[in-house]
């Protein structure tokens, strides 16, 4: 794969968050970019405004003829694309240069100093924090994000190409294509069991990823994980950890303990111990990279977060509305901890859209326990994404397992009325499907009311 020799890049699944970051990267490099996606979205609209031609019908006839020049075109696809996809099969049968997104990302990072963030939770936030820290320390960095940074309003931070910061995605074992100089593992909770079969196979693959680090490179890991490397944590005996944590005006203030010294009074504006943990590992990697602590402290204090990661949409004394991408039981637990810490005396309603039939089936009991912690629960139907229905796996099944008397299964058309009837003071929308598209409607309805 000689990326420099290619002028045209065509994306199958261009609306995906990781795919669109690559599309923005190639646009910035002066390449011609086009693509297909199943449905229009805010991401595809933003790309179209940048001049990217995108169509939404799986038909090779709709592809601009210049992208049918196989000697001058790179085809990039996401594993979420069905195997029966006609455009993808056309390019494969006709011997185009066809690569998975992860393979292209691996090729881009080969010639750079690569810092990779792995883990079943926390990748996007950690990657965006680290990218922001390096950017603010004037490092020539390109950061590929799995979400839209509030600081840059983009899923790509582009400040040079000597250093790359990337999410190391465990789905489909994609992260094994990377060769990072530094890498971290934030968590190894069981997930993607449709790919791995069981949690032990997932752990085994994370160990394989740790062996992809270049000779002389460094591995960072959350304290307690079954790997060897530089540890990080919160108020424990880790190599890097947060000490003397306090909440001041809704923000965390803490001291950073490093293997060498203690740096005082860092400020971090995101709620939740899980987010604070993400900040510690980003700081650890930046310190090891060579960034001075005074610049890091200033940079961290200006970090605004990632859209759909505990994103406030309404925040008044009477009503709070927060949206979050949480789609795994441990992520829901983390959101619950954060909201209870911020609003300990207020009633909390969680609106949850399960993501994938297989994940719902594999973690049905864990989802029920996590959701039962909220004062009230509204469930939407399962978002299928790449999957076909599995018999018996429904939101109704999950609803019956939730030990909470204040629970309902609702449709999207009923959602706003159901929230109004609940009369709760804090509302959360949770999930990785298209629940994010309901956020604007909820915000409009309750902004008027408040």
Tell me the Rg in angstroms: 22 Å
Mind summarizing the main beta sheet? 10 strands, mixed
Q: Class by helix and strand content?
A: alpha/beta
Give the neighbour order of strands across the main sheet.
8-7-9-6-10-11-12-13-14-15
Residue windows where pLDDT falls under 50 for at least 5 positions: none
- The residue fraction in helices comes out at 25-40%
Q: Mean pLDDT, rounded to whole units?
A: 92
Helix count from the secondary structure assignment: 15
CATH topology of the largest domain: UDP-N-acetylmuramoyl-L-alanine:D-glutamate ligase
Write the layout of secondary structure elements.
Elements (H helix, E strand, L loop, with lengths): L7 E5 L4 H12 L3 E5 L5 H8 L3 E3 L17 E5 L8 H8 L3 E4 H10 L2 E6 L4 H14 L4 E9 L4 E5 L4 E6 L13 E4 L7 H4 L2 H12 L7 E5 L7 E5 L5 E9 L2 E7 L4 E7 L4 H17 L3 H9 L9 E5 L4 E5 L4 H14 L5 E5 L4 H6 L1 H8 L4 E4 L15 H7 L5 E3 L5 H8 L3 E5 L8 H11 L1
Parallel strand pairs: 1-2, 1-4, 2-3, 4-5, 6-9, 6-10, 7-9, 10-11, 11-12, 12-13, 17-21, 18-19, 18-21, 19-20
Antiparallel strand pairs: 7-8, 13-14, 14-15, 16-17
Helix pairs in contact: 5-8, 5-9, 10-12, 12-13
Plain-language structure description:
It is built from 15 helices and 21 strands. The protein is an alpha/beta fold and 450 residues long. It folds into 3 domains: 98 residues, 3-Layer(aba) Sandwich (Rossmann fold), CATH 3.40.50.720; 190 residues, Mur-like, catalytic domain (UDP-N-acetylmuramoyl-L-alanine:D-glutamate ligase, 3-Layer(aba) Sandwich); 139 residues, Alpha-Beta Complex (Protein-Tyrosine Phosphatase, Chain A). It has a 10-stranded mixed beta sheet with strand order 8-7-9-6-10-11-12-13-14-15, with helices on both faces. Strands 16-17-21-18-19-20 form a 6-stranded mixed beta sheet, sandwiched between helices. Strands 3-2-1-4-5 form a 5-stranded parallel beta sheet, with helices on both faces. A hairpin with a 2-residue loop joins strand 13 and strand 14.
